[in-house]
């Protein structure tokens, strides 16, 4: 009998099954039954497969083998698989995008994780550090422009450009003679790292099936956490000398050959290819006014939520090392241990959150996770001793389930033609919330001599987000992007999928060739 997990099989002969759909480059299962004179039988099963999961595939091979050896009951999907089956293309794309997410995670926390060390070397005050952290986030304006280009120039091209630029600009921080230089260089670097995160999320949403988009966001978030953890895990290195924090800014240079290799294998998303071809023959003014109003309403809803979210969570993360070091007496090793050990459960919780959001909906999962995450974060800042470790663990463990549930809304709720622009603008509003939160938290901490009451005050902002999620957010689980955004052209589905995609590739190649010829033709000969 054909199976549906982890591969969707089709029977090709008696006892022979091949791949109909699933995350495999190659798959074949054969079953032989040998009858014995005593009435018993010996059943021999052989499965040959190659996963379509580059770089991470070896981690999944044991799980796949166990799943094949012990078939799951009908309708049951193991925890490590997305709720809806990914095909080979989607699996490979997601695996490659997670590597870009690792890079974005590392670049995104460099300044906030090392600020307590360069503060000491440069002799800066809390307020001066808050100005730098604030100024760096102004780079969201640049990130907006970069992500908007992804709507015109393509997701893949802008992702690679952002990756190269982010790495090289981050490395200049190692040469910073003072706070101003560091702030300027990292403003540009953070612009490109933010663009990496935005474009990666968009590409994942455009490549995933409707029942696995939150799962994809959970994978991207978890691997971004691995990148951020690369900074946290080795913070004790910064204790070796006053200048040792500079080494962290050079580490991303080793990723340059990896980005080059990924760039040769990562395809453009199908939805963008379809949109680019369709844009040649469609009149954008034919989009109904009702759809435009709905997109504006969605933008305001997500923008306000992102701003309020960042008002609390950005300073809570940015000032954590400073709080642990100056108010709790932690050294670099203890800070690394706390953040590593208490964040490990959060990685699994992110995966669980993605599964729950895809299966049961985004709103309830997001609201519960955010409420718990904010509450336990405030409790951590108000504690000392072992409760700091306990509350930190609970904050990451329970708060993490909200990340994929709410993070998937940005790519989902806007059409292909403006998905990059809309998400870049949402990021800019989140940056505004970060600026407000950083300045208010630093001012309150300087006034009251502690970050604890400052975090309690700022917690009011995400409390409002929870109300919006429960009362105003639409439910997007199990809905195709084209259903959420009717002006988009749906990608081919069903039995004609491969034939249609091959035709699309040919049409896209002709489109690129014709456009190149038009650009090369002298103006007077047109």
Shape: globular
* Overall helicity: 55-70%
CATH architecture of the largest domain: Up-down Bundle
Structural class: alpha+beta
Distance between the termini: 62 Å
* CATH topological fold name of the largest domain: Growth Hormone, Chain: A
- Could you give the count of β-strands? 4
Low-pLDDT stretches are 521-526
Keywords:
single chain, 526 residues, alpha+beta, 2 domains, disordered C terminus
Q: How is this structure best summarized?
A:
This protein is of the alpha+beta class. The chain is 67% helix and 7% strand. Strands 1-2-3-4 form a four-stranded antiparallel β-sheet.
Descriptive account of the structure:
With about 525 residues, the chain is α+β, with helices and mostly antiparallel strands. The protein has two domains: about 10-50, no CATH class; about 90-265 and about 290-475, Growth Hormone, Chain: A. It is about 65% helix and about 5% strand. The chain is built from 22 helices and four strands. It has a four-stranded antiparallel β-sheet with strand order 1-2-3-4. A hairpin with a 2-residue loop joins strand 1 (about 10-15) and strand 2 (about 15-20). The model is unreliable at about 520-525 (pLDDT under 50).
Topology, element by element:
Layout: E1 8-13, E2 16-21, E3 24-35, E4 41-51, H1 57-69, H2 88-122, H3 126-137, H4 140-153, H5 155-171, H6 179-207, H7 213-233, H8 247-250, H9 256-265, H10 270-279, H11 289-318, H12 320-327, H13 332-360, H14 362-381, H15 386-399, H16 402-407, H17 409-412, H18 419-448, H19 452-458, H20 460-471, H21 481-484, H22 497-520
Helix pairs in contact: 2-5, 2-6, 2-7, 3-6, 3-18, 4-5, 4-6, 4-18, 5-6, 5-9, 6-7, 6-18, 7-13, 10-22, 11-18, 11-20, 13-14, 13-15, 14-15, 14-20, 18-19
